[in-house]
Amino acid sequence: MSQSQPVALILGATGRTGSHLVNLLEKDNGPDNLEIRVAIRKPEQAETFTKRGISTVHLDLDDLSTYESALQGVQRLFMITGYTVDMLSQGKNLTDAAKNAGVEYIVHVGTFHQPNRPQTKLIRHYIWHQLIETYIEASGIAWTHLHPNAFMQNFFGAVQDGKLRMFFGHERVGLVDCYDLARVAAAALRNPQKHAGGRYFLSVEALTMTEAAQILSEELGKLITYEPLPASDLRKLPLTQAMEPAYFECIVRQMELFQAGQLPDFADVYDNIPQIIGEKPIMFREFVRNNRDLFEAA
Fold first, then answer.
1. Taking CA 135 as the corner, what is the angle to CA 254 and CA 39, rounded to the nearest 5 degrees?
2. Which residues is 225 bridged to in the sheet?
3. Which pLDDT value is given to residue 2?
4. Residue 100 — pLDDT band, cuts 50, 70, 90?
5. pLDDT of the residue at 30
6. Using an 8 Å Cβ cutoff, are 189 and 8 in contact?
7. Is there a contact between 34 and 55 (Cβ–Cβ < 8 Å)?
8. Are 227 and 233 spatial neighbours (Cβ–Cβ below 8 Å)?
9. Distance between CA 170 and CA 154 in Å, rounded?
10. How far apart are CA 179 and CA 152, in angstroms?
C-alpha cells in the first residue's frame, strides 16, 4: 500500500450508504487519515461536497472516457454499481481502469449471496454480482466484498395508515442498517491490511413482518399491523420507471421465490459486525427509534 496519505474514491456518495460513508470518513483524525474524493455523475451534485471541502471527480459508469481521469491518483476504491444488467460491463471496465490507474484496494458492495445457498444459484442479479467479484479477484487488486441482506431503510414509506405493507410474505427476513454497511466499509477503507480478502455477510437480525410491525407499534406509540403484498404488485410501484426492466424483474422473481418459501437463506444472521468495527450493530428497534421522525412523517 502507498506510504503517503492514501486517496479513497467513493462511488454512490449521494445514496443512503455512500452518504453515511462520506460522513464517517470526513470525521477521521490521526495519521491514518484518508483523503476522500467523491465521484459524481452530474455537475450539480458537486456543490454539496465542495462546500464541505471534499473534492469531486466526474465519473459516469456508462461513459468509459470518464474512467481514467476519475481514478488518477486513487489508491482505494469504494465500488458500487447501478441497478442494471450493465453492472457487468461497468464492473469489468471499472476494475480494468482501476488496475491501469494503480488502484491498490477495492471495497465492493454486492448482494447477500452466501456460498451454496439458494439465492446464490437462483437470483440472477446475485449471479451478476458474483461474476463481478470473481473478476475483481482475478485482477490482482486487493479486495473486500460486502454482502448486505435486506436494508432496514426499506421500511421507510412502507408504513402508512396504520399498516406495514411489504412484499416479504410471512417468512423471516434478515436485516441490516445502511449505516452499519457504511461503518464496515469505512473500517475496510481505513485498514486494507486487516480487511483485504474479507467477505463480510451483513445481516444482524431476522424478523417476520408481523414482528417488525409489533416493534413499530411499540416505538411509534400506535397500532401498526402487517399487510403482506403479492410479488406481482411490485410492478405497480414507481420503481418500474427508475430501474432497468431486466434488473427489476430479478427482484420480482426473488420475491416470488421468497414468498413461496424457496429462499430460506434470506433469514440467515451473522454476529460479525462487533469483530469488524469494534461496536455493536444497530438492531431494528434502535433503527426505528433513531428514525422516529421519518416514520411519523409518513
1. 85
2. 163
3. 45
4. very high
5. 46
6. yes
7. no
8. no
9. 16
10. 10
Q: CA dihedral defined by 38, 131, 97, 14, rounded to 10 degrees? A: -10
How far is the C-alpha of 167 from the C-alpha of 145, rounded, in Å?
27
For the segment 240-249, what is each residue's pLDDT rounded down to a tens digit? 566 788 898 9
Residue 171 CA to residue 212 CA, distance in Å, equals: 12
CB burial of residue 83 (10 Å; 0-12, 13-18, 19+):
middle
The mean pLDDT of 125-134, rounded to a whole number, is: 95
| Look-up of cell digits 458537486 | 46
Please, which residues have CB within 8 angstroms of residue 87's CB and are 6 or more apart in sequence?
Answer: 81, 125, 128, 129, 132
CB 267 within 8 A of CB 207: no
Average pLDDT of every residue of the chain = 93
d(CA 256, CA 23): 37
Interval 34-82: pLDDT, tens: 899 999 999 899 999 999 989 999 999 999 999 999 999 999 999 998 8
CA–CA distance, 38 with 227 (Å, rounded to integer): 40
Q: How far apart are CA 100 and CA 205, in angstroms?
A: 40
State residue 262's pLDDT score: 94
Cell of 296: 411519523
Which residue intervals of the chain are DSSP H helices? 16-26, 46-50, 67-71, 87-101, 118-122, 124-138, 178-190, 192-195, 209-220, 239-242, 245-259, 273-277, 284-290, 292-297
Look-up of cell digits 395508515: 161
State the pLDDT at residue 29. Answer: 42
Per-residue DSSP letter, 37: E
C-alpha cell of residue 151: 436494508
Q: Could you tell me the CA-to-CA distances from 7 to 12, 31, 77, 282 in Å, in that order? A: 16, 13, 9, 29
User: For cell 454539496, what's the residue?
Assistant: 48
